């Protein structure tokens, strides 16, 4: 097998991966840095970020206020030392992007504009119309291209992480153009592979969001943390699930039920539509379950009414939303309310990493949505993710660079490379079974949507665990129709499905064990938050029989848990 060598390999070219590459390149021009991505960089899901990036930029706002909003939003499961670091770093990142050419939306007097966002008690979302991620990505990509020591391996699919004696040795990856597997030696690896919301059907996420990096780290012995916490975004466009940004409510949009009521007054009388996402998603689901949804051809939905904002404001602040609603739902928000319901949107959990993005494996760092540094706890606030990708992407790049400057390469064992080649090409591509990827994938998504959604119960989680384990068995009997090598997307989809099945299992096992309701994890059978027993993070370790769970404490600096009211 051909083997490449780079000092640092960054897996993922979204906001976190690009920011990490730039930080590593700025640390030293002697380092050979590679960014590996299964799609071209600017097709990473980060380009879809719409509403904004949170940072304290104005008088009247403060680090403490941003930290408090984040901790309260997290239902107190965030590590407060990490949150305090995060809020202080975020403004620096906004200014850096500004210097690198990001076209932020402006106030009348030319300052970077900021809009209100759910759960934030100050308008602190910096934005570029409703295409914030698109502009951030293009700014970062342009900047990364300036460094001669960054190489992009686009359309390479990483299949496994290789660890030797507790430290990173490298990776295996298929170059999709040739279909050949390569070993990649590296002193340091940064995982920046994004989220896994594609375990669900109704989701705001791109088809690429299959959690590959999380699953690879898990299989290599790194625990996954807080995986029971999946965010449901209140405004997924019906029927596609495409996101209607929280910025639409930030700009003043209303949520209306079949009776024409602004029902949020019953759930969050003060914040109304701008309560955090877990609360709004539960409110919408309750309205629908109690018969106050609006009947439509795709089942009951809720209306997002923007008409009172007027055409001019909608065109200036929410142009993408108007376009998307017209094209994909046949509704012009200037004239009619938009049909929406909760959609799977974000994973608060991910690869266990600390404030320096270090994982338990030496030389392995994690940043962006695939990582869990304990900032978002049980529920992330809107616009805190892109800030997180920037802040911890930069940290991961610096840390990986430091590590690569003071450590050598580990042996990349031929046995492991050959075993991986056998797994992918003989056991998956070569399998002559009679199960199909789209069938098992649809089943997995049905199981997750029926049993592991906004509201959960022990019974349903048990059912889901059994069914996902049965699907894992069925996967062993898979058949990929295309047996060719070049651009074998059938093989890629099979590998992604294999990863998501592991992640679905971890999500359910973690959710089943947590017998309380906190943030986005709502148990009908345990409706209260239970700080005495559950103010702790879940760690899930890979074993052949399924995840083994352990727990670690939450770090509290200033803010002791109180009732969470909005
Ligand atoms: C529609 C939408 C709107 C959003 N709006 C906002 C917002 O306004 N504000 C906010 O803060 N957050 C928002 N979010 C969340 C935020 O955009 C994401 O959490 C964040 O962009 C994730 O970035 P990332 O760098 O971690 O990963 P991604 O951008 O998802 O990139 C993942 C990268 O990993 C690569 N990769 C994955 N697997 C492999 C593999 N096996 N081999 C090789 N490469 C691989 C991919 O090719 C890709 O380059 C939004 C999310 C969505 C879906």
The separation of the N and C termini measures 57 Å
Which superfamily, in CATH terms, is the homologous superfamily of the domain at 414-533?
A: Fumarate reductase/succinate dehydrogenase flavoprotein-like, C-terminal domain
Query: What would you call the structural class?
Result: alpha/beta
Helix content: 25-40%
- What's the multimeric state? single chain
Find the count of extended strands (DSSP E, 2+ residues): 21
Largest sheet features: 7 strands, mixed
CATH architecture of the domain at 414-533: Up-down Bundle
Radius of gyration: 22 Å
Which fold name fills CATH's third level, the topology of the domain at 414-533? Methane Monooxygenase Hydroxylase, Chain G, domain 1
Low-confidence stretches: none
Please give a structural write-up.
The structure is a single chain. The chain is an alpha/beta fold. The chain has helices at 15-27, 63-73, 80-99, 132-144, 212-219, 247-250, 277-289, 311-317, 319-329, 384-406, 414-429, 437-451, 458-475, 489-513, 531-534, and strands spanning 3-11, 33-37, 53-54, 114-115, 125-126, 150-154, 156-164, 167-175, 180-191, 224-225, 230-237, 254-256, 302-305, 338-347, 350-352, 364-366, 371-372, 455-456, 522-523, 536-541, 548-553. Among the domains are: 232-342, Succinate dehydrogenase/fumarate reductase flavoprotein, catalytic domain (Flavocytochrome C3, Chain A, domain 1), CATH 3.90.700; 414-533, Methane Monooxygenase Hydroxylase, Chain G, domain 1 (Up-down Bundle), CATH 1.20.58. Strands 1, 2, 6, 7, 8, 9 and 16 form a seven-stranded mixed beta sheet that branches. A five-stranded mixed beta sheet has the order 17-15-10-20-21. The model has no long low-confidence stretch (mean pLDDT 97).
